[in-house]
Amino acid sequence: MNLRLVHAFLILLSALLAVVFGFWCLAMYQREDGLASLLSGIAAFAVSIGLVLYDRWFLRKTRTL
C-alpha cells in the first residue's frame, strides 16, 4: 500500500469519525437540549462532508503519481 492510499484511507476514517461524533452530539442534544451539542453535531457533519470532498480531490489530483 503506497503513501497516497494510506493518506486517502486515513482521511476517510476521519470523515467516518466525524459522522459518529455528529450522531453522538445529536443524541446528547436530545437528552440535554443544549445548543452547543446541536451546533457541534451540525459542524461535525459539515466537517465530514468537507473531508470526503477533500479526499475525492486528493485522489483525483494524485492519480498520475
Terminal CA distance: 14 Å
State which percent range the strand residues make up.
Answer: under 5%
Radius of gyration (CA) equals: 15 Å
State the major sheet: none
Mean pLDDT: 95
Report on the architecture of this protein:
It is a single chain. Helix content is 88%, strand content 0%. It has 65 residues and is mainly alpha-helical. Helix 1 packs antiparallel against helix 2. The two termini are 14 Å apart.
Key structural traits:
65 residues, mainly alpha, elongated
How do the strands and helices of this protein lay out in sequence?
Elements: H1 3-32, H2 35-61
Helix pairs in contact: 1-2
Task: Briefly summarize what is shown.
The chain contains 2 helices and no strands. By secondary structure, it is an all-alpha fold.
